[in-house]
Each structure stands twice: as structure tokens, then as C-alpha cells.
Amino acid sequence: MGILIKPILTEKQTAISEKFSNRYGFRVAPSANKVEIKKAVEELYSVTVVSVNTMNYAGKRKSRNTKAGVINGKTPAFKKAIITLKDGESIDFFSNI
User: Fold this and answer.
1) How far is CA 45 from CA 67, 74, 89, in A?
2) Alpha-carbon distance 21 to 10, whole Å?
């Protein structure tokens, strides 16, 4: 499994990317550190990374009601990285569709 799992393309992250045109979000492997994330982004997208900010999210407890009763579960924990690129550079996630 690689360092980068997938880019984050939510409304909140899109608003951040519009406000700061050189910031992008990725879900990353929980064991990855900032240096590994920086290398992976630079190799994959051929850009220069200025900074990496990481966040660990704990899984949330969820429950739902069914005919058989209440089912309890938990969403998985994950790690998120916000990448800041050098001014003038950008990443196009939709170029190969």
C-alpha cells in the first residue's frame, strides 16, 4: 500500500483550495510521516511541496435501528494531510479522466 491513498474532494476542501490556490488535501497512510508524504506528492505529481500539515482523525461510533434491533459500529480512523505547493504550481486531479 502506498503513502497516498486518495485526494480529498469534499466541499470544505474545495473551498480551501479556492481560497488558497496552492493547497490540496489527501488521505494518507496512518503510519506515514511528513517527509514521506512530501516525497510521494513530489514524485507522483512533479511539483514542489513547501509544507505538509497532518491530522489524525479517530473513528466515530455509529448506530442504526433495523428490524433485528440496534446495530452498533464504528467508522475507521484515518490520517489527512494538507499539502502547500510552491506559488504558481497546481495539481489537476481530473486531467486523466
Assistant:
1) 48, 34, 10
2) 15
